[in-house]
Specification:
Layout (H helix, E strand, L loop, with lengths): L19 H14 L7 H6 L2 E2 L5 E2 L35 E6 L4 H8 L5 E5 L10 H4 L10 E4 L4 H14 L9 E5 L1 H8 L6 H13 L3 E7 L1 H5 L4 H21 L4 H5 L2 E7 L3 H21 L10 E5 L12 H14 L4 E3 L12 H17 L13 H23 L3 H7 L1 H18 L39 H17 L4 E6 L3 H16 L4 E3 L4 H4 L3 E5 L2 H17 L4 E5 L10 E3 L5 H11 L4
EC number: 5.4.99.2
Organism: Streptomyces shaanxiensis
Keywords: Cobalamin, Cobalt, Isomerase
């Protein structure tokens, strides 16, 4: 929080205090110049940004934006961190995911900055019988191992415990997570499995392996199905509560049951929302533990993974920027462990370079940026504290909605949870289609001539449950149609951009139109004449003033030259010969899909 220095020096003492009303009047004056005649709170609202879950980011936060006391790191409600020391001692745990039994790749990661392993075992991953080979030469007393084995969790867990015993790893030294997650598996595949073996593993860990946890509460299936931050939080709480019920019925105390859970969340390139989500998650779980009669056991252990939803297949190099921001947010948000997905994750198995960049992302943030040296660096920000509180409220409401429907399992099986997630994704898809949520390298600044990045196919992931979505999927479909056309005909579909007037008049809209059409795989031709372009459609690009003078004449000339469809880049008007208008906020996906249809690109 903002505190005056001990000497009482206040740097703004010579300036008169400004009230909130005065600030709003100044904002209204600026907006009036841009044509918006609003006053007071409406002026401030005009600068606000709508988020999912009914939340809004306002342009100004002050000390009057009250939020509950976040407490201190290591103490309930654990908003500021699950441990008093945070990640100041060595930084967060750098956890890398492996899906193949390649011991060389595993060792390369551990020798170059990775501190724990996350292994996909069984279907879509490493065969249980090959687990020992994947961990060949790994010092299991130093490197924690986290399993993700789906239905094969019991044989995989028993195999890992056998390896501990075979290699002389003491039970009190073993660290990691056996990865049981029946509800997460059902969300992924639509198939459930018996909880009895999971309860037995939890009892074994509680009694003999103090450094091992038995269960993971994985919120990624709900994030990857298009869920919002609050839906991800609510689903994770419902999962955690369901596991607490099962474990306590199996004979564990509430404290023992809480100690068997690790929570897994997604980190996106929206850094403040990610920070607030992780802080809110700790607060909410602390509340669950308090209600269950174990307030001291409410310190949530968090494993954070950079979002698979945000990873693109086109121009994948931009994924490095996305994962860097997400990792920064995860670290600032207090994550205990962080997995950075390689930039080529969406294309198949990552190569050595991609894996190196992924692990070095955490290394640079910890060792060079010293991000972990400050506990909860966003704490005290009026914006972050308020966003944390609002997100916690929204997450708790969604958790209660799931509980009212009978719990997470019932919500999954009835289809209600999928419907809720689908509605959220449909709303977001509309923003993506209109480029209100831009995707650099895909919907904005696409590069049609880029050399495709090719990778070996990754093992097929379990499916059959909730869908997996990607931000780029609508544009990827358009680009795939263009690629097929290129392969079949030797050229991409084209559109001629007719620039009217001097560069100062047409450059802005020419650039806009070029970006728009290339996002759908349509090559924009700006040189020469329409007849020489090889295009069948055209788009006028210029200023409003020149449109009034020339648009109808040029549109008629283009139609006479063979243009079957003429666009105009700018606000919709009434120009004879113009068939459609493209402008900021138009449905780019619908426009591009219809254009490809007319061009015969199937």
């Amino acid at each position: 929080m903002t505190v005056l220095p001990d000497d009482g020096l206040e740097l703004a003492a010579e300036f008169p205090d400004v009230s909130h009303d005065q600030w709003q009047r100044l904002v209204a004056g600026v907006l009036r110049k841009s044509g918006k005649d609003v006053e007071g709170a409406q002026a401030e609202e005009a600068l606000s940004t709508a988020l999912e879950d009914g939340l809004r980011t306002r342009p100004l936060y002050t000390a009057h934006d009250a939020a509950p006391d976040p407490g201190l790191p290591g103490f309930a409600p654990f908003v500021r961190g699950s441990r008093a020391e945070g990640n100041t001692v060595g930084g967060w745990d750098v956890r890398q995911r492996h899906t193949t039994a390649d011991g060389g790749t595993v060792l390369a990661d551990l020798e170059n900055g990775v501190t724990s392993l996350w292994l996909a075992v069984g279907e879509g991953g490493i065969p249980v019988a090959s687990l020992g080979g994947a961990l060949e030469s790994v010092y299991l007393d130093l490197a924690p191992v986290v399993l993700d084995a789906g239905r094969e969790v019991e044989p995989a867990a028993r195999e890992l415990l056998r390896l501990y015993e075979e290699r002389g790893v003491a039970k009190d030294v073993a660290r990691g997570n056996l990865g049981a997650d029946p509800l997460g598996h059902e969300a992924r595949t639509g198939q459930s499995y018996d909880f009895s073996p999971v309860a037995a593993l939890a009892r074994l860990c509680a009694e003999e392996y103090p450094g091992l946890r038995a269960l993971t509460v994985d919120a990624l299936p709900y994030h990857e199905a298009g869920g919002s931050a609050a839906q991800e939080l609510g689903s994770s709480l419902a999962t955690g509560v369901a596991y607490l019920r099962e474990l306590t019925e199996a004979g564990l105390s509430v404290e023992q049951a809480c100690a068997q859970l690790e929570f897994r969340y997604a980190a996106t390139a929206d850094q403040f929302l990610t920070i607030a989500k992780l802080r809110a998650a700790r607060r909410l779980w602390a509340r669950v533990a308090e209600v269950c009669g174990a307030p001291g056991a409410g310190a949530q252990v968090q494993h954070v993974v950079t979002s698979p939803v945000m990873m693109t297949r086109r121009d994948p190099w931009v994924n490095m920027l996305r994962t860097t921001i997400a990792t920064l947010a995860a670290g600032a948000g207090g994550a205990d462990s962080v997995t950075v997905l390689p930039f080529d994750h969406a294309l198949g198995l990552p190569d050595a370079f991609a894996r190196r960049i992924a692990r070095n992302t955490s290394t640079i943030l910890i060792e060079e940026s010293h991000l972990a040296r400050v506990i909860d660096p966003a704490g005290g920000s009026w914006y972050v504290e308020r966003l944390t509180d609002e997100l916690a409220q929204a997450g708790w409401e969604f958790f209660q909605r799931i509980e009212r429907s009978g719990g997470l399992a019932a919500s999954l099986r009835s289809g209600q949870l999928e419907q809720d997630l689908t509605e959220t994704w449909q709303a977001r898809s509309g923003k993506l289609a209109k480029r209100r949520e831009p995707i650099t390298g895909v919907s904005e600044f696409p590069h049609l001539g880029e050399k495709a990045v090719e990778r070996e196919p990754a093992p097929e992931q379990p499916s059959g449950g909730l869908p997996r979505v990607r931000r780029d999927e609508a544009y990827e479909e358009l680009r795939a149609r263009s690629d097929a056309h290129l392969a079949a005909t030797g050229s991409r579909p084209r559109i001629f951009l007719a620039a009217l007037g001097p560069a100062a008049a047409h450059t802005a809209r020419l650039t806009f139109a070029s970006n728009l059409f290339q996002a759908g795989g349509i090559e924009a031709v700006t040189e020469g004449t329409f007849e020489d372009s090889g295009a069948t459609e055209a788009c006028l690009c210029s200023s409003d003033a020149l449109y009034e003078e020339q648009a109808e004449t040029v549109a008629a000339e283009l139609k006479a030259s063979g243009a079957s469809h003429v666009f105009l880049a700018g606000r919709p008007g009434q120009y004879a010969g113009v068939d459609a208008y493209v402008f900021a906020g138009c449905d780019a996906v619908a426009v591009l899909s219809a254009t490809l249809d007319r061009m015969g690109v199937s």
